[in-house]
Amino acid sequence: MPTTTRSVCPQLRPDLVIEKQGEGKTVRYVISDPAKGRYFSCGAPQHALLMLLTGQLTTTEIATQYSAQTRILLRPEQLEAVLRRLEGLDFLLPSGNLAPSSSSLSLTSPPLWKSRFRRKMHWKLFPMQRILLPLQPAMRWLFSPAFFLICVLLILLTGWILLHGGWSHGVVPLMSGLYAHPSLSSWSIVLVALLITCYLHECGHVYALQHYGREPGYLGVGFAFPLGPIVYVEIGEVWRLAQARQRILVSLAGPLASLLVAGIGALGWWLLPVSPLWSPWFAAFLVMGLLTGVYNLLPLRGTDGYFALADMVGVPNLDRKASLYLKEVLLRPFRRQQPLRKYSLRQHLLFAGYGVPILLLKAWLIWNLGGFLLRRVVSFVVFLLHFL
Q: Which element (helix H / strand E) includes 82?
């Protein structure tokens, strides 16, 4: 059934703040939603369409003027899909709502069970700006070349300690106390060390963001499937930084703080004499620092390393675009009638070079974590049956 274009006049919310970043081929536009504290990024073609949503033009006039300005043909079903997406983001005024139609392309909301499955529960604790801003003048040395050199040396020293007894005499006994011979004290030490490490990890992001003149939001805790409990800080202001180098440094400041915690833990465990009072604590900080630091450096979607890599290559939504690329390539023999998207040589190398290793890494993580959890469940079931 053909799509009919509506005669509504969609209008963009006037309180949205749109800022231009970069020039030429690297130009981007950051859209700030002050009502919900969210940030979005778009390119020049999308920005040209947003500028036509004045409430004075019908959808037919918008499509005509957009094609005249950008030399890009905008079909009615494409415009309708974009408007529905903007409406879902609450970018349009209520007067511009779209009525139901017989469009062959519609953006429907996910089923209720999926929305509940993906839902994240967040609780704000306190504003980071109020606590860390008074300390900013005394922390400028954190961004000096000398401090960066100290960080590199400490990370190298951590690796040396792990190879010379830190792993076998520090990490392994700690993990054995968690799973092989679990005890309340071992779990308490690890959980406290994890919370402190996560807090310092977020402080790294905050200090870097403040260093470049932007304000962080609240520190909070939450629960996200399948990660479980999380600690987060609102640093949406990072998208308002014009330079990609600044955004990269803000993203990497968190993992660097975690690795520094691991280095301090390794150094304390190595230099101080072995004692049941402080040795488990230093080992716990070593393990938690390494886990949070190394995991966030992996370019998996949503990690600090992913956002840093996306800024390095200048491709927003890198994970989604690489996934679409792999689907098109793998399913190409079965979609001979469907026109294929054209990619440049750089896009072929980038999407394949990122998508294939990440796909293998995800499969490896699922295999190992799934096997680990399955072994624990089977052991528990066997123990329960033996007890009964």
A: helix 76-88
Contact 62, 52 (CB under 8 A): yes
Q: Which uninterrupted H or E stretch holds 41?
A: strand 38-42
* DSSP 8-class letter at 165: I
Query: At which residue do the structure tokens 């139901």 appear?
Result: 100
Q: Is 308 exposed, middle or buried (0-12, 13-18, 19+ CB in 10 A)?
A: buried
Three-state SS for 230? strand
Residues 155, 161: Cα–Cα separation, whole Å: 10
198 burial via Cβ count (<10 Å: 0-12, 13-18, 19+): buried
Contact status, residue 174 vs residue 280, Cβ threshold 8 Å: yes
Residues 89 and 50: beta-carbon distance below 8 Å: no
**pLDDT tens by residue, 232-280:** 788 878 888 878 888 999 999 999 999 999 999 999 988 888 787 888 8
**Which amino acid belongs to residue 300?**
L
Max CA-CA distance within the chain?
78
What residue has token string 């606590």? Answer: 131
Cis previous bond, 226, omega within 30? yes
* pLDDT of 366 above 90: no
Q: Over pLDDT 70: what percentage of the chain? A: 84
Are 142 and 206 within 8 A, CB to CB? no
Rounded-to-integer distance, Cα 53 and Cα 373, Å: 51
DSSP 317: T
